[in-house]
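Researcher: Go.
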Amino acid sequence: MKHKIIYRFLLTLSFLLLLCFPALSLEGARKGLLLWYNTVLPTLLPFMICMNLMVSFGAVNLLAAPFYPVLHRLLGLSRAGSFILLSGMLCGYPMGAKNCSDFLDNGLLSLSEARCLYAVSSFPSPMFLAGYMMHMANSGAQPIPLPLWKMAAAVYLPALFLFFPAAACYKQHRSPKSCPSPSQPDCPARHGKINSSTTNTAPSLDEALFSSIEVMVKIGGYIMLFSILAVFIRRLPLPGTLLPAFFITVAEMTTGIEYASLHFPGLLKILLIGFGGAFGGLSGAFQVRSVTKNAGLSIRHYLFWKTAHGLLTVILLILLAARH
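Model: Structure:
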């Protein structure tokens, strides 16, 4: 009951702010939609369509096959789990979490493995990192040259460090014995094989396109809303410039990275950009929640692990930048 009262108050306050400050609302909405159109849409949509088709045609094993022996030996992942981790790294938010939820619903993962992957499989895509994040890190106020491999290592390596405490927390074993349908001897989660017969989707380009566009529209809506929030945060009488920059980055990753690039010099700018990319922002968390259909995956746990991911990225960037 208390939660409903708080939600009603926040919704009423949001409506009044939009009504009283239409110029700020318009500015935030325009910036958010432009960021989505110019940056997120072209980098994410083609990969999302391709991934949906790969799952439909049962081609997932081909992508996972070269990496599965290493990931299985190191992390105990199944073939489906290896694909989810790779899809999260290659496609960016929120594809790792979406595949995790879809594969769990289709019986391709045990619940414990799905929870581990839900905690560590969300990243900025390599195109977003190499293009937008590195451009912002190496431009703006007093840039210091930072090699791409250092930013990539700081953003992607923490997932490996976090997987082991996540596995201990969710009791993930190297050879999962649990299965959504344990009575079936050919349970995909037990054998780790993926084929088109185990999914409920038909290999249709139209369906893959429609599903991907639906997700992209959700992402665009959340980016727009949190970009409006970022504009209002800028107008708050907060002391200094670091605190508003932190709140903006926590609210919306892309907007926060741009703000950090324009207002902060050197290492501090790089740390804010790295934290924003690793954490993903509350906007990214809402995107993940919107594509997560399974009740066994907790968005609160997701936020905890992403906060830890962001802090580890900051620590790694400090160590790597010191060796520059």
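Model: The radius of gyration is 20 Å.
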